[in-house]
Amino acid sequence: MEHNVVIYTDGACSGNPGPGGWGAILMYDDYKKEISGYNENTTNNIMEITAVLEAVKLLKFSCNIKIYSDSAYVVNCFKQGWIYNWQKNNWKTADKKPVKNKELWEELYNNLLQHKFEFIKVKGHSDNEYNNRCDLLATDEIKKNT
Has 135 been annotated as catalytic? Predict the structure, then answer.
């Protein structure tokens, strides 16, 4: 049986670094689950990766996942193959610098291995209902924790 899951994610940071939040929505058939979290000292990129990671970690079966994010950093990491090059180059960037957020990228990659996945870039702060909802989940985490 095919498990087709749609995930929307967003991360936010007040100051960069500073207090941050993330939000995600997982949709499967008629089910919808919202999750979110907070970190008191982080960056927007860490929150963007964390949102995807925490959503994927909830999946109990091998799934076909469409992951929607407004983060070019997250989407391009997979769509443009950065992560595969980083792994081949011992977690160094093209200019031989250590990859930032390596542990998070590794954990996300390892959690994605059992799935078929596609990353889709969405325009942030536009008229995408689910992206806007994830943004609200992320920013609400910052508001309620600071």
Answer: yes
The closest of 62, 63, 80, 61 to 119, measured between CA atoms, is 80
* Active-site annotation holds for 10: yes
Listed residue (133, 130, 116, 106) closest to 59, CA to CA: 116
**Residue of 21, 23, 54, 70 marked active site:** 70
Choosing from 37, 48, 54, 141, the catalytic residue is: 48
Write down the catalytic residue from 23, 37, 135, 141: 135
- Is 37 a residue of the active site? no
**Structure token digits, residue 112:** 């994605």
Give the predicted TM-score (pTM) of the model.
0.96
Show Cβ contacts of residue 136 under 8 Å, excluding neighbours closer than 6 positions.
23
| All residues at 6 or more sequence positions from 144 whose CB lies less than 8 Å from its CB, including other chains | 38
**How does residue 126 score in pLDDT terms, banded at 50, 70 and 90?**
confident
* Catalytic (active site) residue 70: yes
pLDDT at 1 > cutoff 80:
no
Tokens standing for 140? 């609400």
Distance CA 137, CA 129 (A): 12
